[in-house]
Design goal:
Largest sheet: 8 strands, mixed
CATH class of the largest domain: Alpha Beta
Number of strands: 23
Distance between the termini: 79 Å
Shape: elongated
Strand order of the largest sheet: 1-2-4-3-5-9-7-8
Structural class: alpha/beta
CATH topology of the largest domain: Aminopeptidase
CATH superfamily of the largest domain: Zn peptidases
Radius of gyration: 26 Å
């Protein structure tokens, strides 16, 4: 009997909490409850989305280099939902379909487009997560109704499928679509302009990725999300259209501080007369530029994808209820600006030899991605990116190199017959001796290797050096002992390693030189 009473009490408690949750989420709030645009309601809603995200995450998209063929089945599956209308809006330069997904019946049209640049896919993943949420049938139904009865969502995932195929910024013909708003030379550009005009969008979301090297203001924190209410003239004037963008961004910044504190910035609002964002703002659509940046430990941007999911659904809720009006332009202007100040690794106060001299300076290394297998995959290439006084820069990894002397990594003198023989190599012992490369009689095809040292053919040289642009294959010595090694830009704590696995877990890939 007592267990049954406890069970009933628990059900009543859950029902009461559920009722309070729904009241907080919907637009009709009574006295004493958070208004739809209040910080409390916004954070309560986003926290519920955050905690339940895995229920709606599209499981087939797990990395950034998916192609048009990977998303077409997802689009076709959404077409079968009674609330979703699918439109084929046209074709890319190479004949790939460009689709629009529409959901909602409200009077406020909202237009979203992603992958205008083919190598900027984070928001495309998030759009499929968003549509999985909007088409679900569960405890969020009243929230969905509050959104979809007030706004109509038009989403174009992967506007540049040819660029996505190559994982490149530009279209197949070589046009930067975001510099084609006036001439409309690319068929993809003409589709976007037509959709803006036909939908009469009151709000537009221009969804991009940016370099992971940006920081949020003059801080060491990477920019995870950068926003912009684009300027529509050289004077960067603020009219009611642009002001709406600013207010909504101010609300989104407040919400995101709960999950990525200090990692939100604003993109430069210098007027670009050819850009779509600037012109769509000029044409009367309140435009929000979203740039997905970088976060340490999130190379495939899956957490940043989740932040896109949160900010888009919070935007829909705010637009539907008008909650963004409670924020101010001053709050938008208080968001720190993007600063291009991050490097992969920075060594502080390093001793660098030059001829008969030695200099004390900082040295930075950056790693960049190189496409392979038709841009389905990639490898990393590390180079020296800056030397000198780097006090105004930060690194995702930083080393106090006071008392350390840098030298180029050496090549182990023995030659191995095959790469299979490398399995018996004591890699940590080689690193402690200053070696960063080994020789193999016939290296395998390709430019990179999972073996944690560079692999050279019998006569190949290992590129290295301390000047900007040189390959980053370095050894840092403390007296006669190796403290750190840098293999293809990847930092290895040699002195602090207890085992080879411990030392080399940070090496993404080394390179093959023939």
């Amino acid at each position: 009997m007592m267990n049954r009473l406890r069970s009933n009490s628990f059900r009543l408690l859950c029902l009461s909490l559920s009722t309070l949750f729904i009241l907080a989420m919907t637009n009709d709030t009574s006295a004493g409850e958070p208004s739809p645009g209040s910080d409390d309601a916004s954070i309560s809603f986003s926290r519920s989305l955050y905690d339940t995200y895995d229920n709606y995450r599209e499981p087939s998209l797990n990395h950034r280099r998916f192609k048009h063929k990977d998303i077409v089945p997802l689009i076709r599956a959404l077409e079968s939902h009674p609330d979703v209308t699918l439109y084929q809006e046209g074709y890319s330069t190479e004949g790939r379909e460009i689709f629009r997904l529409t959901i909602g019946s409200g009077d406020i049209p909202v237009l979203l487009w992603s992958q205008m640049h083919g190598n900027e896919p984070t928001a495309t993943m998030a759009l499929f997560d968003v549509f999985r949420f909007l088409t679900a049938d569960d405890e969020f139904n009243e929230v969905r109704a509050g959104i979809l009865e007030n706004i109509t969502i038009h989403a174009v995932p992967m506007l540049n499928p040819d660029g996505a195929e190559r994982y490149q910024r530009r279209t197949a013909f070589g046009i930067d679509m975001n510099r084609d708003a006036l001439q409309l030379q690319a068929p993809e550009s003409r589709i976007l302009k037509r959709l803006r005009d036909e939908t009469g969008a009151e709000f537009g979301f221009n969804l991009h990725d940016q370099s992971i090297r940006y920081s949020a203001g003059d801080t060491p924190k990477s920019t995870v999300i950068a926003f912009l209410a684009p300027a529509f003239d050289e004077e960067r004037s603020i009219n009611p259209v642009r002001e709406r963008s600013m207010l909504l961004i101010a609300q989104l910044d407040r919400m995101l501080q709960e999950y990525i504190p200090g990692h939100v910035a604003t993109f430069s609002d210098t007027f670009e007369p050819r850009a779509f964002g600037d012109n769509i703002q000029k044409w009367g659509t309140s435009t929000i530029l979203v740039e997905s940046g970088g976060l340490k430990g999130d190379p495939e941007k899956q957490y940043i994808r989740k932040m896109n999911y949160l900010l888009l659904l919070e935007s829909f809720r705010s637009i539907a209820g008008g909650g963004y009006r409670e924020y101010t332009v001053e709050q938008y202007e208080a968001i720190p600006p993007n600063r291009l100040r991050l490097h992969s690794v920075i060594f502080r106060n390093l001793t660098v030899p030059f001829r008969e001299y030695e200099f004390q300076m900082d040295l930075a290394v950056n790693r960049t991605e190189v496409n392979t297998n038709g841009a389905t995959d990639f490898y990393k290439r590390g180079t020296v990116s800056e030397v000198g006084d780097l006090s105004v820069f930060n690194g995702f990894e930083e080393v106090d190199a006071t008392g350390l002397r840098v030298d180029s990594g050496m090549v182990y003198p023995d030659i191995f017959a095959t790469e299979t023989e490398l399995e018996r190599v004591d890699v940590l012992a080689l690193l402690r001796a200053g070696y960063t490369a080994v020789r193999v009689e016939e290296p395998s095809e390709g430019r990179h290797t999972d073996f944690p040292l560079n692999i050279l053919g019998p006569t190949a040289r290992q590129p290295s050096g301390f000047k900007i642009g040189h390959s980053a294959n370095l050894v840092l010595w403390r007296d006669e002992q190796v403290a750190y090694a840098v293999i293809n830009g990847f930092l290895v704590d040699v002195a602090g390693a207890r085992s080879a696995g411990d030392a080399l877990e940070n090496v993404g890939n080394a390179l093959i030189y023939r």
